Amino acid sequence: LISIDPEIGGLLLSGPRGSAKSTLVRSLASLNHDQPFVTVPLGASEEMVIGSLDLDQALSQSQLAFKPGLLAKANEGILYVDEVNLLADHLVDLLLDAAASGTNLIERDGISHQHAALFSLVGTMTPDEGETVPYTNLSLPTHDHVSIMILARSL
Questions:
Q1: For 64-123, what is each residue's pLDDT tens digit?
Q2: Which end of the chain is flanked by fewer CB atoms within 10 Å, N or C?
Q3: 77 with 36: CB under 8 angstroms?
Q4: DSSP letters of the chain?
Q5: Looking at the DSSP assignment, which residues form a beta bridge with residue 151?
Q6: How far apart are CA 94 and CA 104, in angstroms?
Q7: What is the pLDDT of residues 27-59, one digit of tens each?
């Protein structure tokens, strides 16, 4: 669905472990060779996700430079979070804010940098792992921001 219409915004696949959710999402990378496909690891830091200012270049060349994070790398592509309900809430908030606004703003020590962050957010989750909203099986931080949710059932 994301390959056909990236304007969908977000996609969440929910199902039991072993139902091929991650395999299905990763197959998007082979379908969309001309689009970036970026995975956010569960252990990602805020700096890794949003990017940072390159302090080495600032100190050595007295020049400000942006060090791109995963949001910049996913621009005009797909940003994928496996087991999104296990990702730290503040990182999910950052992803959702960037997805909603289409921009990423980095502010450090009175210096700011902004860049486009136009991506389709795709997540997978196993409902019996992590915190979910009762009766919905949706991840707490994402349930208001997902355009389409697909529930997989084991056979």
A1: 788 899 999 999 999 999 999 899 989 999 998 999 899 999 887 777 889 999 998 998
A2: C
A3: yes
A4: -TTT-GGG-EEEEE--TTSSHHHHHHHHHHH-TTS-EEE--TT--HHHHH-EE-HHHHHHHS---EE--HHHHTTTEEEEETTGGGS-HHHHHHHHHHHHHSEEEEEETTEEEEEE--EEEEEEE-TTSS-B-TTT--BTTTTTS-SEEEE----
A5: 14
A6: 9
A7: 877 887 788 999 999 999 999 999 988 878 877
